[in-house]
């Protein structure tokens, strides 16, 4: 901890550095590493923030303010937040740290204008966006102003909206740190946001929204932007809405920004050309392919230069079951207002208009919240309502993103909701079609002949379709997909979220604290999948992820941590850390969670599995009664699968991300060779096919949990080659189940046709 740096530059950062640089910082570093046009930046690390609290003696006083706080008591929340923020700002940043921040700014350029952005360590995660919970300060110039903005970002971690949101998402205040990104400000002539896939359905449609000036206008929803839909399959624009863009946000002098009116000739002008839309869509696709999940990307354009300013996972894609959207309105009624459907669903309620933040106290459970535009301070009220309507904004504005995350129907960009609707008025909102009806409107029942019943049956597959999970907060959303279990539960996020290495807990005699937190996190996911298999992977964090955590001072510096001291090889060489994990698993088995299976990562020889099994037996585990398996992510484990079967594995699961890299000697994060990363390379497929065949012959379940398991084409190939189960990302379950079902049906038909043909030959 004490040796962790205060400053990290973008080129030093990768996605595994999230505990040090937060979600935003990790994403920027990762994007820069794959060649995306990201402006230069450095990060004031989370360790610097923690050191500030310790060195100034603020830590205990700060957390005592928040301890036992009822976040649903608005007055108590505001008072505690104000006190916490004032405490952070009450003392200066120590001279040495301030000098480092100023020196890094000077390295960018002494007169460079920068954006200073908060980057919390629980932010931009695959399962929760934490959109807008901490502050960003734009148009900052000069070392002193940068230092002030950094401290204000730190203070914003304890703003009322941030404390409230963390509490409702199940994050403890002590477990969340904050880094700060200091990045060259791009004076965008036009800017906005794009979703690499449709943010509700997950279709391969790139949704791009853009307006004039800085992108803050689009993100905040202060302007209704142009909307462009680019079909990735057809490689062309299939829809566009050119909005009337009344205002834009531009830099204001040496500090801050200002909102100004757009000139008459630009108000209704098209923001993006066909060529610019195509370039944005292509960069978005590159980001989605790299991360393996749809992305929400902020962009800016200056002249012919295009910049990517941020990328985070889309957390709002819903599983589609076919047919009409759930709760979609089908009746008739009086339409009083139209806008853009931003979050699907139907809701009826009493209109509650918010013109000022202080008005949100009058919003009751089940109301329809109406505002010019929502902002993060309104999240407590947004949680209470059954529907949301705004005057401004588009598919990528704050109201749209948070509504989709909450599952609340929303219509944005109506232009006149706050002036046309009245407080207390009853309305019905259709978030699919972007329509608001007068009064309570019932959906008309569809009529069919009495002897005809149309039923949309769920897809049933012989192949088990499981889901990958990383965070307890995602358990219910993962279970709602109807998955047949969890094929990969990564415990790295649970452990990294403790901000201390397992060795720290051992050294400080806090083993019980570690075991209890790991037990509680895994239990939440097990409870969401009663009676279904949940395969938990033991710790697989490389040394660079531990190095910046408390207790990580003695972690080795490895040239390539992905090929180093991680996975089962680390656990076997540090049995004390391994035992902490096993103790949590033992308690879960004892509590009756027989569906818990244990999966060992990065095994390269059967002796490692045998040694791990022996340790479990020594620690009181009945190894013959529990489900133990391995990850197949090293070529040797695929080649030696027969020996692993003889050693007693009950399942094997392909970790294709590593298997591809280790088979082809290609680092997919290295821009010079990333194009050679090929999941369907013949050598990779040959290894997988061989292992599947040997497992089937021995009656051992063979599965896949790597990124290839979320690719429908790859899944079809796997089913054809006899795989028994697949595990995909949450947003991919529906399409993977459909791919498996279609493949199984095709195989059955082919067998039937072949049999019929043979019988026909005998007849004739």
From TrEMBL:
Keywords on record: ATP-binding, Kinase, Magnesium, Metal-binding, Nucleotide-binding, Transferase
EC number: 2.7.9.2
Molecular function via GO: ATP binding; metal ion binding; pyruvate, water dikinase activity
Domain of life: Archaea
Residue span(s) of domain PEP-utilising enzyme C-terminal: 460-743
Pfam families: PEP-utilizers, PEP-utilizers_C, PPDK_N
Domain PEP-utilising enzyme mobile: 364-434
Catalytic activity: pyruvate + ATP + H2O = phosphoenolpyruvate + AMP + phosphate + 2 H(+)
InterPro entries: ATP_grasp_subdomain_1, PEP-util_enz_mobile_dom, PEP_synth, PEP_util_AS, PEP_util_C, Phosphohistidine_dom_sf, PPDK_AMP/ATP-bd, Pyrv/PenolPyrv_kinase-like_dom
Pathways per UniProt: Carbohydrate biosynthesis; gluconeogenesis
This protein's record includes keyword S-adenosyl-L-methionine: no
Ranges of residues in domain Pyruvate phosphate dikinase AMP/ATP-binding: 19-329
Obligatory cofactor(s): Mg(2+)
GO biological process, one term: gluconeogenesis
Role of this protein: Catalyzes the phosphorylation of pyruvate to phosphoenolpyruvate.
Record family assignment: Belongs to the PEP-utilizing enzyme family.
NCBIfam families on file: PEP_synth, PRK06464.1
Protein name: Phosphoenolpyruvate synthase
Originating organism: Methanocalculus chunghsingensis
